[in-house]
Amino acid sequence: MGCGGIGLRHMEELAKNPYVSLVAFCDLDVNKAKVAAEKFGIRDTSTFSDAEEMFDKIEIDAAYFCVPPYAHGSEMTVIERGIPFFIEKPVDLDLKRVRRIASAIEKRGLLTSVGYMNRYRRGVQLAKETFKDDPPILVLGGWIRKEMSGGQIS
């Protein structure tokens, strides 16, 4: 789910893995899904603009959610079906929904992962180590379209 910037980046890497077949693509803009399917999909790949429809029609082994935080909501469908999944951060803007999803994942014992590339960046690790013993006094930051993405910048 999600055939925009970060979704395409994940597809580039997944397509290199000989054990992965990209069989279905979903984006609110179905044209983005079609472009991604042409570039990364196997023969007879399906495209959708609705995730629920995709899960009803295509049998998959795992799912990737690479959508903006405001576009989440289909995760419960894959949890109910027992499909392992990867999700890009931020995982959602609705804390109650996040807690329901986390609880359902735990009850199901489902394999999941949240992607956050900055977690492992050298600069982030260096700052974490530096600030451990000498916390910063002032930190500046801002928000980019907070109501839709929750995406902070600093």
Structure summary:
With 154 residues, the protein is α/β, with parallel strands linked by helices.
The neighbouring-strand order within the major sheet is: 3-4-5
Radius of gyration from the CA trace?
17 Å
Order of helices and strands: HEHEHEHEHEHEHE
Query: How many domains?
Result: 1
Please count the beta strands (DSSP E, at least 2 residues each).
7
Number of helices: 7
Task: Describe the secondary structure blueprint for this structure.
Elements: H1 5-16, E1 24-26, H2 30-40, E2 46-48, H3 51-57, E3 63-65, H4 75-80, E4 85-88, H5 95-108, E5 112-115, H6 122-133, E6 142-144, H7 146-149, E7 151-153
Parallel strand pairs: 1-2, 3-4, 4-5
Antiparallel strand pairs: 6-7
Quick tags:
154 residues; alpha/beta; Rossmann fold; three-stranded parallel β-sheet; two-stranded parallel ribbon; 43% helix; globular
Give a verbal description of the structure.
The chain has 154 residues and is of the alpha/beta class. Helices cover 43% and strands 15% of the residues. It has one domain (5-115): NAD(P)-binding Rossmann-like Domain (Rossmann fold). 22% of the residues are buried. It has a 3-stranded parallel sheet with strand order 3-4-5. Strands 1-2 form a two-stranded parallel ribbon. A two-stranded antiparallel sheet has the order 6-7. The protein has helices at residues 5-16, 30-40, 51-57, 75-80, 95-108, 122-133, 146-149; strands spanning 24-26, 46-48, 63-65, 85-88, 112-115, 142-144, 151-153. The protein is globular, with a radius of gyration of 17 Å. Helix 5 links the parallel strand 4 and strand 5.
